Structure formats: structure tokens, C-alpha cells
Amino acid sequence: MNVVMIGAGYVGLVSGACFAEFGANVTCLDVDQGKIEALESGKIPIYEPGLDELVKRNVQAGRLSFSTQFKDSIGDADLVFIAVGTPTRRGDGHADLKYVYAAATQIAQYLKGYTLIVDKSTVPVGTAREVKRVIAKTNPEADFDVASNPEFLREGSAINDFMRPDRVVLGVETARAETLLRELYRPLYLIEAPFLITDLESAEITKYAANAFLATKISFINEVAQLCEKTGADVSAVARGMGLDGRIGKKFLHAGPGYGGSCFPKDTQAMIRMAQDAGTSSRIVEAVVAANAAQKSLMVSKIQAALGGSVADKTIAVLGLTFKPETDDMRDAPSLTILPALVEKGALIKAHDPHGMEEAAKELPAAVEYADDIDDVVRDADAIVLMTEWNLYRGLDLSHIKTLMRGDVFVDLRNVYEKQWMQERGFKYSCVGR
Which residues are catalytic? Predict the structure, then answer.
């Protein structure tokens, strides 16, 4: 099968490489010449474990290529996936669909024979039908269908999520479209991956509903953590007690500084706007967004309190900057809210992250310093703030680190360590909800 991915970003590149691994002939198209040239030279523009080897293997096998030329690829394609960005539109919270519709217009010009156009981007309800209208208007003679196939990839484990998914959602209108998508995903039938075949609108809303619900679990446990701190309870124990209930489940019940990343912040906002446009409400999701913003602000107060009420002229060593481990993604990371607030209050920030420092430097205040070595970050620090739970921060040589620090404060925003264990090693330990 000939597959074209419009967009060589996170979703397009991962999906394209995985489809090539399935045996399809895949071309990833992007208007960013620099990105395509980097990919052609073997440079992966994002950090995702295992992606570099997957891309290299399929390029060498002749199943995966990259281009900026729509005309050369669209006409021979059996399926064209739209996998462009849908960021929050400035000012109103709606998903910005200009890249989706621009891609649809480009695709329409070069269609030859029957082609299935598939929305892979996260898009609000009604987008697939609008894509269909745009293509039909641009090219009235085109023979095509439009489908919705939302992605459910977690950054840091995206390849495994694609190869061993919890489910594959296919929103289709015709038997021909369903048959083509089933054939493309046929390798997943061997592992009995669940397939949900539904209409376009249900597929579109499923993605948003899933992300909004996961964000709700995060904000809920963070509010429980506040209650635990006020009453002397342990949020970790409470979360375990909740998670053992099969109706609730243990995932996404980890108290911390709030959610971030490329999906939850924009998708919760878009869910709220979709509900408003439909003339209904989304009060729970609205509360989730507000609670998440409050949680990030609360972390600033927690760090101040750990340092005696003020961070002015204090040196703070920050471990982890990305919104989660195993990614270099800084989009809406809690650090982007917390660290500027600390700098504004007079703190000197020194930071370390295994893969996120280059991206972080584009977003954080210029006053933030960076170091490639943990020892250099913690040396002469008054406090350590563990912001992101990368594995290399889970087994720190704390006795050694303590000798390098000027102070003894350790603020663990991810609850990686145990309070008593840290106190026995001479730290004034602060965490979330315990």
C-alpha cells in the first residue's frame, strides 16, 4: 500500500515509521524544508525512544522516504493521512485548524483515482466533514472518502503504543474506507488489538473525551493531595486505595505539579469550546483546567515555604524540565510556569534535563543557567527541586550531592523519594500530598 503522511512532526513521523514497519510504502511530506533535509540526513527532530532506529531501518529498506513535494506523492497514494499541528488558537481556546484545511486543499489538487483521506490530527467534531467539503470544492472530480483515525500515542512510549494499542478507532462512512484502513492495520489483528468502527463524529469526540478524562484524574488527585497535606494523610496511600478499585484504576493518580504536554492542555480547552459551540456545558473539564493552573501556582508557594518563605537570592537546582520523562517536549510543561515565577521572585535557577535543555532554553527566562552534569547543577545550591521524574533522578547519590550543596532543602514535586529516608540523609524534605 502507498501511504502519505502530511506532516513530519511527532504524530506524522511516528505513525509513518510504524506503517512502514508494517510493510507499507510511506512518504512523509512537510512544508518545512529544513526538517525534511534533516530527516533525509538521518537526524530525528524529536526525542522519542527507539524512533531513530525505526526510521533508519525503514529508510534503508526503501519503505520510508521524506519530501516537500506534494505533487510527486499524492497521486499514487492509497491513503493520505493529515497529521499536522492543531494548536490552541490564540485568544479563544479553539483548536486552530488552518493547517488541516491547508493540507486538504493541497491534497485535493493532486488526487488521482480513489484515495482515502484520513484525519490523524486531533481535531474537533465536524472537522472530517469540513475536510470532505474542502476537497470536493477544490476538486469536484475527485474520487475519495474521508475518515477519522485519532492517535493515542504517549510521548516516551509512542512506538509501543502504536504497535500494541489499547484500541484502534476508525471513523468511516463507507465500506470501501473501512476495508482500506483494516488492510493497512492488518498486522494488529495478529495480536488481537481491539478495533472500534464508528461514525466520523464519534471518532473525533472519542479522542478529546479520553484526554479530558485522564486530565480529570490528574487534577482530582492533585486536589486530594492538598487535602492530605492539611490533614496529615498520605496521598500515595490514598491513590493506591482508589486505584485498587477496578472501576477507577491506578493510572494517572500520581500527585505532582500539574499536567502539561502537547495534548492535555490544548485538548481540554478545545473540549470546552466544542461544548460551548454545541450549546451545552463542560463544567467538569472547566474545573479541571482551573485546578491544573492553580496546582502549578501552588508549587511556587511550596518551594518558597521550603526555603523559609522567600527564594530571593537563593540558588535552586532544578532536576528535569520537560513535562514528563522520555521526551524533549516542553509544551505547557509545569517548569514553564514555576521557574519564571521563581526567577521573578529573585531566585537563581540552575537546571538539568537529559534531553530537554535545548528546547527549554527557547522558552525559559534568559537568567536560567544550564549544566550537562548533575554535580555542576547542585553545587552550592540552597535547594534542589525535582521537577520531572527521569530515571536518572530516581537513584541519586544523595550523600554525595549533600556534600556539594550549600543548603539542605529537597523539594520533590514527583514524590520519587520517601520522607523518612530523605530526612535520615540530612535533607529538609518537602513533597506533594504527604
Answer: 263
CA distance 431 to 434: 6
Domain end call among 198, 217, 247: 198
> How many structural domains does the chain have?
2
Per the CB < 8 A criterion, the answer to whether 205 and 267 are in contact is: no
CA gap 157, 162 in Å, rounded: 9
**DSSP E strand stretches across 139-275:** 144-148, 168-171, 195-198
Q: For residue 401, what is the domain's CATH number? A: 3.40.50.720
Q: Which residues of the chain carry a pLDDT beneath 70?
A: none
Whether residue 398 contacts residue 428, with contact meaning beta carbons closer than 8 Å, is answered with no
> In terms of Cα–Cα distance, which of 197, 182, 8 is closest to 85?
8
Domain end marker among 198, 222, 254: 198
The confidence score (pLDDT) of residue 32 equals 93
Nearest to 207 by CA among 22, 8, 11, 9: 11
> What pTM was estimated for this model as a whole?
0.93
Residues 163 and 55 in one domain: yes
- Residue in this structure with the C-alpha cell 537529559, named with its chain if needed: 354
What's phi and psi for 4, nearest 5 deg?
-120, 130
